[in-house]
Specification:
331 residues, 2 domains, 35% helix, GMP Synthetase, Chain A, domain 3, alpha/beta, binds magnesium ion, Rossmann fold, eight-stranded mixed sheet, binds adenosine-5'-diphosphate
Length: 331
């Protein structure tokens, strides 16, 4: 593609998606000849009004940069055609409440800080933890051809089944087959565009919904989250067995609520017993990617939708260890 036009198309932000046409993978064709630029864009997830607004922005931007007239045309495109996700990783836990969503969030923050583009799909219907942690609110928009994810304050696309519901506090009492259908549909219909990593926060446990998501997405690997509590081991084993059964690579394990650091006495208190990290790593046949402490600052940031503001070596280490298991694509 023409360098100058590519830069223009990378500067035109799609309303509602807060990412550029290039980032969203919507540029189909560009021809430049005789002082005229002909641009063909895909219409995935763009309602008519958005298409008109985008076309106008492109014409204005092209004229400003090149002084040439742009002819902008939309052609039909599915989200699947537009999406170009390098790695899809699922975050799994044997049971709820161990911090699966929190670890998903921290991993996204870590990869983002390392310079990768990261999206998060919250496939856990038990509550909107991911949107809440990232301060993402409101309804997702789209068209008959797809859904636009919402974006976090640092620009990460976030999509949650919970964002499609009427209100956050509406309980989800869907029956199995409906959930199954919704999860499959959901997987296809979101416009992620170009991403280095798509992280999926799976439902807890080893239920049908987990199987559905594992089948519906091209998952490169699974990260298993656990806490050092006694009974968890059997549950962790189950989760790992399930991943193996589904022929998904276990990339690593993360121990959450591993300890509480008390600065006054400079000590780590192992609230839930001694670390089981090495043991779990052995069971999984994969590395221990991190030991996350119980941290009231972190909990408070999550409650305020500011997980992206959490500064800690824990995050850096988690990202570095993860990147050793699944190579980051060239930036
Ligand atoms: N390491 C931690 N430090 C402080 N709070 C935590 C930690 N891990 C989890 N929490 C809190 O515990 C609750 C449950 O965590 P969450 O990630 O939603 O669990 P899950 O997704 O496994 O159900 C959340 O309110 C979260 O903020
Ligand atoms: Mg959760």
């Amino acid at each position: 593609m023409d360098e100058q036009i590519a830069r223009v198309l990378d500067s035109v932000i799609v309303p509602g998606a807060e990412r550029s046409l290039l980032q969203l993978g919507l540029v189909r064709d560009v021809e430049r000849a005789d002082g005229q630029v002909h641009i063909v864009l895909g219409d995935a997830a763009l309602a008519d009004e958005s298409q008109q607004a985008v076309a106008e922005s492109v014409r204005v931007a092209v004229a400003a940069v090149t002084g040439e007239d742009a002819f902008v045309e939309f052609t039909s495109m599915t989200t699947e055609e537009a999406n170009d996700v390098r790695h899809t990783v699922a975050i799994m836990s044997g049971k709820g409440g161990v911090g699966k969503s929190l670890v998903t969030g921290l991993l996204a923050v870590a990869l983002g800080r390392a310079g990768y583009s990261v999206g998060i799909l919250d496939a856990d219907l038990t509550g909107p933890s991911i949107p809440k942690m990232f301060g993402v609110e409101g309804r997702a928009y789209g068209s008959s051809s797809g859904i636009l994810p919402l974006v976090s304050s640092s620009g990460k696309p976030v999509m949650s089944m919970n964002l499609l519901l009427e209100s956050n506090d509406q309980p989800v009492i869907w029956r199995g087959p409906l959930i199954d259908k919704a999860l499959r549909q959901f997987g296809k219909d979101v416009l992620w565009g170009k991403l280095d990593y798509l992280l999926i926060d799976l439902p807890p446990g080893t239920a049908d919904a987990v199987l559905t998501v594992m089948q519906a997405f091209p998952i490169d690997g699974v990260v298993v989250v656990f806490t050092p509590q006694d009974l968890v081991e059997m549950i962790v084993r189950k989760a790992i067995n399930m991943a193996v059964m589904m022929q998904k690579r276990v990339l690593g394990v993360v121990e959450n609520m591993s300890y509480l650091y008390v600065p006054e006495i400079d000590k780590r208190l192992e609230l839930f017993g001694p670390s089981r990290g090495d043991e779990m790593a052995k069971i999984a046949g994969a590395p221990l990617l991190g030991r996350i402490p119980v941290d009231p600052t972190l909990a408070a940031l999550c409650d305020r939708g500011r997980i992206e503001d959490y500064k800690s070596d824990i995050v850096t280490t988690l990202g570095e260890n993860f990147l050793k298991t699944l190579d980051g694509p060239a930036r």
